[in-house]
Batch of 4 targets.
Target 1
Amino acid sequence: MPKLPNNLASSASTLNYRRSLNNNNNMKREFVFPLIVGLIFGALIMIFWQFNVRLNNAGAVLTQLEQATAQNTKNVGDIITFINNATGQKGAAQTGTPAAETTNK
């Protein structure tokens, strides 16, 4: 078999190498698009998950606030009833305070 000159052998291997790079780039391009779509989809899922967690926390805080308000309303109502019973007054509407009535007499 005849020997090829060095420049022909190197150009043939260079062509082979370039072809493999082009095939590699095609595979990379095919892999990049689903990767980008997957990252965007994953980011959206994480954003909505974070929103859901914050919404659940806000709902729990609101429930605790409603319970505290109901308890405090009951306590204030009991205190008002006690004061009204202690001063001998009936009804919630007052024309004056008990302290003002004792000083006017």
Target 2
Amino acid sequence: MNDVTLDSHCWPALEAVDQAFVERWLVSEGEAVRAGELLARVRLMQQTVEVVAPHNGVLETIFIPAGERFGQGAVLARVIPW
């Protein structure tokens, strides 16, 4: 899977209208990443959730910039395998 999303288990008991926001990206577009590497920190309700790389590759595109809100199922970024 190339798309980076917030795992569905992070959204328990939340209504579809609830949103999270990206606190900050720790990796820039075009950078190489390793599976499990921390890519971003997301704020959901009262907690910070870490978003990690799904596999080794390159962070091709960030779709949700830092400070932007997003809903459940949104694609935050795309990692292309190498």
Target 3
Amino acid sequence: MEQPKTLQQRQAELQALISTPQGRAELEALASNYVAAGGRMRPWGTSVITYILVHERQKGLIVG
């Protein structure tokens, strides 16, 4: 199993992805997978990065 990442590490990874169209599509796909897995819709106006970080933190994938 992969070691949990710090919030800063994961946020930097996600921010690097959002800078390209392909990365943005990857983030949206990841968020869609999390919606399907958890049943929670992303609140209107919430950034995809924030949504992913909250979901991963709740699942124990992010520490700190």
Target 4
Amino acid sequence: MNSKTNLTNWRTAPYSQWGFQNVRQLIPTANIQSAKSSQSFNTGDGSVLDSKQFACAGEQKLETILNDSHTDSLLVLHRGKRVWQWQAKHTHIAQPHIVFSVSKSITAMLAGILIEQKILDTTKPILYYLPEVKGSAYSDCSLQQLLDMQVALEFDESYLEPTGVFRRYRDSTGWNSVDQNNPGPDLETFLYSLKKTDANHGEVFEYNSPNSDLLGLLIERVARVAYADLLSDLIWQPMGAETNGYVTVDRMMLARGAGGICVTIDDLARFGQLILDRGAVSGKQIIPESWIDDTSTKGSQSAWQKGDFVGLLPKGCYRNQWYQVGDEDHSIMALGIHGQWLYINPTSEVVIAKMASQPEPADDRLDEQTLRVFSELCRSL
């Protein structure tokens, strides 16, 4: 273990470069088992990206852009082939890296499988599956509203807030250093304590991570299988993951479906390819095609336009824990703090996986630049 990195600083630079690749040494985790046999990506020709200068980033080359944006690794797939890959000198490419809120999008695909199996129903209230939410903000919202971040939740997603509700949230996940004699609530207890605002559910897109942690808890409860085992059994092994991943858990062993997944860049890209291939691998359907269609085409434009992220994606939308980019290619993406991305362009048949250790949790300038670069990259292949 790096003696300088601990629970008080692992999400801050420069400690995050080590911390994001060694979460297991800092926080309790549960294993996400890889496949017994897997196949590496074939190599395609992406040489056009070696010398390309990106007009959207001041005619800089891709390597310069990645260095300047604190990127740890980037992998580009085109038609299922590895066409371009880059990694920073400090990055161990075969070592799992935390993907933060990209975890939400992975969790939602588990939900889609359970919906196809008739274990879940998006029209039912959360209370139907989790009676414990009675009296909380979640007692009168539907599963679909939870999936679409349309819960009227009294919560402030303020990543740098040292006190208050967000600090208590992080404490409950096991991500902070806490007083062991008075650690505060565990994650499940914290979720049940959250209250509703005066607004109605289903009207506004409000990005709040506790919604996705509750989704992970709900999935685990109805499936009666631990989250990490379920993800391994239903997605990670069937898609042919090469390396074991893991997910952080709180002191009661509840997984953080909102942000705790740690995987390699190859397996993150492989998951993106699975989505691009409409949920199938070698002719076997793993994720329902109908769920991928729902995720990439449906959703409330009205709720999105009233939300906080419309500046990043003016024509976008949010559906089933995924972002619809709103471009003519019908691209979708998953996004995590500190620069984690999974970008899928079905028209260009491109998947881009990006892992980073950006100093700031949210950086609008870098996010906007990354979107432009990815769009231009897709047009180049």
